[in-house]
Amino acid sequence: MNKGVRVLIIITILVLLFFLLILHFNPFSILKRPFQRIYHIFSVSEEEYSTLLQNALTALDDDPLVYYDYTKKIVREACVAIEKKRDTSVEALFISSVQLVREQEYAKSFDQLYEIIATSPNWCEAYCYIGYIGFKYDIIPIDKSVEYLKKSIECNPKKARYYSFLATVYRHKYKNTQDSQYMLLAEENFEFALKLDPEDLNAYNNYANFLVEIGEYEKAEENYKKAISIYPEHGKPYYNLACVKALQGDKQSALKYLREALDRNIDFRYDAKNDPDLEIIKDTPEFLEWIYNYRSAIPQNN
User: Fold this and answer.
1) How far apart, in whole angstroms, are the C-alpha atoms of residue 81 and residue 60?
2) What span, in angstroms and rounded, lies between the C-alpha atoms of 127 and 166?
3) What is the mean pLDDT of the segment spanning 39-48?
4) Structural domains of the chain in order of their starting residue, each with its CATH number
5) Are 100 and 109 in contact (CB under 8 A)?
6) pLDDT score of 3
7) CB 169 within 8 A of CB 210
8) What digits encode the pLDDT tens for the residues 248-297?
9) pLDDT of residue 237
């Protein structure tokens, strides 16, 4: 057998071995799923694209400040598809403006929101976002925030969230000025929001926070418990109840509700560590153990 044939046989054997190794270990399987997802986004049909945008808008209606992983995921996917299609529709501009807020690109986000209300003055969510996000991140003066939130209410007077957000801004104005008119406006708008939507978890929680600030602890406790009855796996109302009970001097109840909160979200231990409202329980053995060595009784996947 001549040298050339031997070399060809060796190369053939090595190639076969290489493919056998690939088939056995399949290293590409790790990359397969993300590549499939990216391919799907870039090859999405018009019908699938329309559904993707609608799903993102529905998620944002439920979770406007993008707290939940599902909302984050679907908004990101929608933005990739929007960029690929170079879509400048109102829906696309709105979804991408929300993502820009998450990326702290506030100037770009607000340019798009202003563009929306200039071309589509009936797109109520744009007024709401300018008003509330402008307040939340101190982008526009607080009086402008009130003005835009009032415009969102004029646009859709049956949307509970708009009243709840406006109430939150009035609550902030009251804290800064101690002017009783803002306290009354905050209370009035929170109560009207809950009248429109008696299942609004965030409205109950934020209203209760406001009631704590003005010293109405019993009414605050009622609202936190209502929030818990709507969504018992959400940890925030339990944490806030712990703070209320601590402020009232009830150590045992404060510890009980703090444990409930930690069972649902162990990250509350970082809030608790520096929260002045919980001062009364910070020297207890339970508090110290939970802050530094807590083991949740509920799987951390809520």
Assistant:
1) 17
2) 12
3) 68
4) 41-120 (no CATH), 121-185 (1.25.40), 199-302 (1.25.40.10)
5) yes
6) 63
7) no
8) 999 999 999 999 999 999 999 999 999 999 999 999 999 999 988 876 65
9) 95
Element at 268 (helix H, strand E) = helix 268-273
Can you read off the two tokens belonging to residue 235? Answer: 């940890």
Alpha helices in 63-105 (DSSP H): 69-85, 90-102
What does pTM read for this prediction?
0.77
* Exposed / middle / buried, residue 31 (Cβ in 10 Å: 0-12, 13-18, 19+): exposed
Q: Look up residue 28 and give its two tokens.
A: 């590409």
**pLDDT for the residue numbered 243:** 96
Identify whether the C-beta of residue 147 lies closer than 8 Å to the C-beta of residue 155: no
Both tokens assigned to 187 = 């209370």
Coil, helix or strand at residue 224: helix
Helix (H, G, I), strand (E, B) or coil at 247: helix
Beta strands (DSSP E) in the chain are none
**Distance from C-alpha of 86 to C-alpha of 71, rounded to nearest angstrom:** 22
Q: Which amino acid is at 119?
A: T
- Mean per-residue pLDDT for 50-75? 92
Query: How many CB atoms neighbour CB 197 within 10 A?
Result: 15
Closest CA to 82 of 70, 94, 67: 94
End-to-end CA distance of the chain: 69
The amino acid present at 203, given as its one-letter code, is A
* DSSP string of 275-291, one letter each residue: -GGGGGGTTSHHHHHHH
Taking CA atoms, 192 is separated from 102, 130, 162, 185, in Å, by: 29, 22, 10, 10
Write the CA distances from 267 to 49, 68, 207, 243, 286, integer angstroms.
36, 15, 23, 16, 16
Structure tokens at 284: 């207890």
Helix pair angle (90-102, 106-119), 10° resolution: 160
CA atoms within 13 A on the CB side of 205: 18
Residue type, 109: S
